[in-house]
Amino acid sequence: MLEKANSYKLLVVAPSGAHLRNFLHRIESANTQIHIITSKPLIFETKHPVTFVDFTLKNPLNISPTLEAIRKVYQEFLPDIVHVHQLNSVAFYTVKALRKYKVHLIATAWGSDVLTLPQKGVLYKAMVKYSLKHATAFTSDSAFMAKRMRELVPKRKLDITICNFGVSEPVYSLPKEDIIYANRLHKPLYRVDKIIAAFKKFLDSGSDNWQLVVAATGTETEKLKALTNQLKIADSVSFVGWLENDDNMKWYAKAKVWASIPSSDATAISLLEAMYNGCFPVVADLPASHEWIVDGENGRIVKDVDSSFFEEIETVDFDRVAKRNKSIIEQEATYAISEKKFQDLHRRLLESE
């Protein structure tokens, strides 16, 4: 109905964190009344009411209270749309709690929930498939991940919108320096140690004027610092820790190269940010990478993570790459584009009633 599409009530269910904040920013410009269900205190301020529940499945005694808590919010708020994020236990609880109600339920996949969680065991796979079978519509940040979702439930025709959270316009315009910037979490998944090892080979090849800047933190931070000492490159590697957005943007603006070689990933927002800020991305050979990068043209796709994969960057025309990557993001992945896709999906479902 057109009137409802212009003003509607939205229940957002998601883990607390930056992705929730980003989604709210994309949807708040619509004429929506929002209620949030999450599991932990928010890392940002919000004007919207928030209900906290426990999304874990480890304790069987937790299942019934969580389902009832979600139903209670639904019955009191009576949303026109429920938009849940992450097809793990968050979506499972939400879909199971609200399946009996006639409400549009959208599920947004984040990456590991679809790409790796189903491989951890039969029960995990069944949990993901349950949400895919019963939610109304879905969003995915890459065509590859959407394909994987369809493969999990081949008998159902899924309504999937390809949509990422988008990125903001570059804040700084700074002279590019001989810096390789790596800002993914220090976890085994992201293989930051391989970046450090390749950087060592790059320095040894004669490119000793370059610096590697490692941002973020994680379980492997101390191990990574020890590795730089072991390789005797500590003078060329800076660990800058967890950065606020402003400092993160400054490093994007200064770095010629951005590096990220995880073993599994969908479309990383950090890749889009790096491209918009004119960096030359060096990325893992993953399907989602190929949706944004043409190897040797606007970035480097690393097929062998143990190789000296930085050596070819000395021949890159960084000015040309910066213009091309900025153009790609302006056409495909700005805040405005993301906002329109999410809001158009909501309106389409409401107008279908």
UniProtKB/TrEMBL annotation:
The source's superkingdom equals: Bacteria
Glycosyl transferase family domain segment(s) = 176-312
Glycosyltransferase subfamily 4-like N-terminal domain boundaries: 10-142
Q: Which UniProt keywords apply?
A: Transferase
Instruction: State the Pfam families in the record.
Output: Glyco_trans_4_2 (PF13477), Glycos_transf_1 (PF00534)
- Cite the GO molecular-function annotations of the record: glycosyltransferase activity
Q: Does the keyword Transferase apply?
A: yes
Claim: Transferase is one of the keywords in the record: yes
Listed name of the protein: Glycosyltransferase family 4 protein
Which organism does this sequence originate in? Cryomorpha ignava
